[in-house]
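Researcher: Quick test of sequence recovery. Tokens follow.
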């Protein structure tokens, strides 16, 4: 029904070199116990930084399904980032996130990840 972002999205390590598994941290809370939410992570389609999906393929979008409780819930999502085709080199990239609750309400968040030149 209503998802609250209790602490905004962060990424670590930050800055980082690529390829690397990145830990995305955030704290969420719902006004319902066990609410199902869909979390989508996206990046600009034009730059050289990509997510790596579960099959090892580059993608600009990753989706995760979560259950969120009525208590503050730390959320850890691990996603590997890599270089691929696109504009670069990049000094930093913005990771956009959209959380969609069980009522279809979309809640945006984002973080910036510094990229070491290597």
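Model:
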């Amino acid at each position: 029904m209503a998802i609250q972002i209790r602490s905004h999205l962060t990424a670590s390590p930050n800055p980082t070199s690529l390829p690397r598994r990145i830990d995305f941290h955030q704290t969420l809370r719902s006004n319902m116990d066990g609410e199902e939410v869909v979390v989508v992570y996206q990046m600009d389609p034009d730059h050289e930084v990509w997510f790596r999906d579960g099959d090892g393929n580059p993608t600009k979008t990753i989706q995760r399904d979560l259950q969120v409780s009525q208590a503050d819930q730390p959320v850890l999502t691990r996603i590997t980032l890599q270089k691929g085709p696109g504009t670069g080199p990049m000094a930093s990239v913005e990771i956009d996130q959209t959380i969609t609750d069980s009522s279809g309400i979309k809640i945006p968040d984002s973080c910036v990840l510094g990229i070491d030149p290597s």
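The mean pLDDT is 95.
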